[in-house]
Structures are given as C-alpha cells and as structure tokens.
Amino acid sequence: MFSRFLRHPQTLAALSLLLLVALWQLAATLLHNNTLPTPIKVATVLWQAIVSGELPYHLGATLLRLISSFTIAMLLGCAIGVLLGRHKTLDAFFDNWLVIFLNVPALVTIILCYVWFGLIEWAAILAVVINKLPNVIVTIREGTRTLNQDLLEMAQSYRFSRRKTFVHVIWPQLHPFVMAATRSGLALIWKIILVVELLGRSNGMGYQLHLFFQLFDVASLLAYTVAFVAVIQLIEVLLLKPLDKKAQRWRR
Amino acid sequence: MSSIHINIANKTFNADGRQHCAIADLQLKIEPNQFVCLVGPSGCGKTTLLNIIAGLDSQFQGQIALTEQARNPQIGYVFQNPRLLPWHTVRENIELVFEQTPPTQLIDSLLAEMQLADVQAVYPQRLSLGMQRRVSIIRAFAINPDILLMDEPFVSLDAPTARQIRNSLQNLWLQRPHTVLFVTHDLREAIALADRLIFLSASPMQVVGDIVVTIDRQQRDAEQIEQFRQHLLQHFPAINSLL
How far A154 CA lies from chain B's nearest CA (Å)? Predict the structure, then answer.
C-alpha cells in the first residue's frame, strides 16, 4: 500500500522536499551555529519580513525589473532571431557579433552600463537585456532554421496571408523554442538582476542580500532566497506549464 | 475552370555544384476541365512542373499562362506528402484554406464522401497515411479550385485504399469538374482517371506521347483498362522505358 502511495508524483515530490528540510534541520542542530540557522528560525524571519512589508517591497522591485527586461529581451530576440534565421546574408554578417556578445561576462556589461549611463533604473534594465538578448536570438534563430519548408509551400500555394502564415504555420513550430528561451531566460535573468541590484540599486533582492551579507544575517538571506525560489516556481507552475500543455495538446 | 498554357524554355537546378537541365523547351496546352495525367519516370521533373504552375517555383525561363476568365485562379494542390498542419484538427486544416467563412455544408459533404466525418475533430498525426491523404484531397477540393494539381497522391497506399480514394476522387470530380493535372507513374491508375495522358521523359523533361483515353468513363473496369494499357504498350513501345 505504501508503494502505491509513493507512485503519485506529487506525493513523491512533497516527500523529497520534506527530506531536504529534515536534513537541513539535522545539520543546523548538529552545527549549532549562527551561520546555519534552523528551518524554523528561517520561517519566522520570513514571516516577519512578509508582515513588515519589507520583503514584498523588495521582491516587487526585483519582479518588476524581471518582467520589463524579460519582455524587452524576448520581443527583440524573437524578431531578430526570425530575421537572422530567414536571411542567410544577414546571419553571416551578424554571426560574429552574436558570438562576441554571448561571451561578454555579465558582470562586464553591468559595470559598463553603470559607468556609461549612471546608476539609474534603465541602465540596470539595459544591462540585463544585453545579457539575455543573444541567448534568445540564437535559440529562435535555430528554431527558424528548422521551419518545415513543405508546410510553408502549402501555405503559399493556398495563398495564406502573411498573418495567417505566421499564426498558423510559423508560430506553432517556433513555440518549443520560445518556451526554451523563456525557461532558460527566466533562470538567467533573475540571477543577473540580483548582481545588477547589488552593484547599483537601492532596492530589490540583490540590494537586500548585499545588506544581509554585510550584517552577517544568514537567516534573512535564506528567508529571502526561499521566497524568491518559491515565486519562480509559481511562475513555472501557474504560467509556463499550462501554456506548454495547451500548445502541445496535438502531439501524440 | 481554367486552361493552362505551359511554355518553359529552360529550367535548371544545381546539384553538386553543377547545373542540370530539368526541363527544356516544354510546351503544353491543357484544356479547361480536362483531367490530365502526367506519366513519367521518377525524377523526371513532374513535381518541379507542378510547383512552377502553382507559383512556388519562379526560377525558370518561360511562362505559365492561365486563362483570362480567372485572372487570379484558385489552385488546389495535393502534395505527395499530405502536408497537414499537425497542430490543427482535420476540420481546422480544411477550414484554414478559406479567406472568409468556410462553407460548412460543403465541408460536411466532402468529409462524408471521403468517410472522414467521424474523425474531423482529430489531430492528423493520429490518422493513417491514407486518411491524411484524403484530408489533403478534401482541402484541395473544398476551395473549388480552377486548377487542381495532384502529385502522386496515392503512392505508397495499399491497393484497396488507393482504389477507394480514387473512386471518391472521381465522384467528386464528376460532380464539380475542373482542370486537373495528376502526376503518377502507375499507368493503370492514369487510364482509370484521365481524359488525356501525357508521357514525359527525363533529363531534360520532354513530351514523348500525348494520348486521349477513348474509353467511356462509366465503362472503365479493370478489363477495359488492361486492354487499353496493352494497346498503348504495343503501339507506343517508348512508353515501356518510362514506367
């Protein structure tokens, strides 16, 4: 009976999480030291941070930056990616640029943006966009290159309008690539945003983490991390998974 | 309804860095509402010819003129592979080729004729190849095309399925005739369907025979078709090398 209970993926996931927390509790008890607070202590700090409004404020600031830089990077990246995927000459011309931008360290872009434009909001967003953009372009370009020529010919022979061709023939084929870019994009962007905030903003998660580091406040550090990871998970479960499922329903 | 004047001076393609001549000096006139079968060996450029007529390939010297009654003629193209959009259901795939509201009744009757009414809400990948082929035939028929291009639509189907779809195709065409160019290298199939047979040779493509099928449509049973085939092979031995 227990093995049947285990077969539910949700139960299994819950059990594994519980095990992680238990291990954490065990390590904290054994260590008995300020550098590794117990899960209960972290939960208390988390609750206080939420109630005081401090965590929602900083989390909100970070999420706002995440949404704006992500949207800009995805829109621009999709447009440029499709363009490069469809035009060989353009692609050959700009390929080197892509390679260069892909390999510039995130930290360099951030510092340069702050040095050139000052410690202002849009410099922070620009730095994140520049870091993410080449990634999106490369993914979407690959997707565009693999577009099924037969289906495009079908659309052409039946005189599909440009809009119809894009919506019904091209977009469904690009969708997996856009989802891949979205997933890897979110993971990359929120890590970069923390650095951007740490270096030059006076609010947001990165700023707070820097503060906790200086105060040696590990409990708050872990509390903020838990909150942030939870939010990213929520985005995955509530937004990305359903989108994926809807778009993939035709597959066998 | 549309006639087709084909005049291709030269069509080359690039392979291994060398220019090959696929079609040279090809002239054909297809009458309105004629059912024409193009018979020739694989690789002789039949698909290329259909693509040129459909406007998918403009890299050639010469011109394709379609009659003035239909300045912008509707072309239905049944490709060798069904080319259905896998993320749309059978019915959506058919409805999508219409610019305005799709004709519900017509689509219903076509689905019924092709015995696909039960699967209209199914995604194409769940269907057999034969069923997918029938969907692509309906899609081409539904727009009431001036010209219908069919590129070996029954190849790699088992004989009974092919026969069944062939009959449905014939029924549909008799109800609403239009100009058809049907590519095949099955001579029996060609005789069963066509008003006129055009035999093509390869590299470069040339017309080596242009024959009207004289048997009445109603009387084209297996025996009649076989007789006609034997007659053709006897009198035009060149055909043997094309099949």
Answer: 7
Nearest-CB residue to A158 (from B51, B88, B97): B97
Q: Which amino acid, residue B45?
A: G
Tell me the residue type at B218: Q
Is residue B80 situated within a structural domain? no
Q: Which residues of A touch B86 (CB under 8 A)?
A: 250-251
Structural domain contains residue B108: yes
Q: Which domain range does residue B205 map to?
A: 4-74+147-242
Which of B193, B158, B189, B191 shows the shortest CA–CA distance to B173? Answer: B193
Q: What's the pLDDT tens digit per position in A131-188?
A: 999 999 999 999 999 999 999 999 999 999 999 999 999 999 999 999 999 988 888 8
Interface touch B97/A157, C-beta < 8 Å = no
A51-247 CATH fold: MetI-like fold (1.10.3720)
Please say if the pLDDT value at position B68 is more than 60. no
Sequence-distant (6+) residues with CB within 8 A of B138 are: B94, B107, B110, B111, B114, B116
**Lookup: tokens for A143:** 């997707």
Do B137 and B165 contact (CB within 8 A), yes or no?
yes
Instruction: Specify the pTM.
Output: 0.81
Q: Does residue A231 belong to the interface with chain B, where contact is any CB pair within 8 Å?
A: no
Partner residue opposite B56 with nearest CB, options A156, A164, A250: A156
B interface test, pick of A167, A171, A250 with most B CB neighbours within 10 Å: A250
